[in-house]
């Protein structure tokens, strides 16, 4: 099992990036990616670096959450603003909610 999700949760950005290397869209528990996890915890530096390396902002976890949905749901406003230009804002979670639906 990868230690990357734990490092992201601890905001150990440099070590997480080192282990992620070029596999920026790898999947972890519940189909989360490094970008969905970084947006969940609000790690702006990691989100920015993952986007620079080509991370797909529209990949969804097993409940349909995207990086943008995670950022909005967890009040990580700065991260959400970084993700809006590269995200499909119409993607829905399995329950039917979009990122903008989480705001209202």
What does this protein look like?
The chain is an all-alpha fold. The chain has one domain (4-103): Alpha Horseshoe (Serine Threonine Protein Phosphatase 5, Tetratricopeptide repeat). Helices cover 48% and strands 0% of the residues. It contains seven helices and no strands. The chain has helices at 4-9, 13-20, 34-41, 44-52, 67-73, 77-83, 99-103. α3 (34-41) packs antiparallel against α4 and α5 packs antiparallel against α6. The radius of gyration is 12 Å and the shape is globular. The termini are far apart. The mean pLDDT is 91.
Write the layout of secondary structure elements.
Blueprint: H1 4-9, H2 13-20, H3 34-41, H4 44-52, H5 67-73, H6 77-83, H7 99-103
Helix pairs in contact: 3-4, 3-5, 5-6
Number of helices: 7
**CATH class type:** Mainly Alpha
Average the pLDDT over all residues and give the rounded result.
91
Poorly predicted spans: none
The CATH homologous superfamily name equals: Ankyrin repeat-containing domain
- Gyration radius, to the nearest Å? 12 Å
Can I get a quick summary?
This protein has 104 residues and is mainly alpha-helical. The chain is built from seven helices and no strands.
Task: Describe this protein with a few key phrases.
single chain; Serine Threonine Protein Phosphatase 5, Tetratricopeptide repeat; mainly alpha; 104 residues; globular; 0% strand; 7 helices
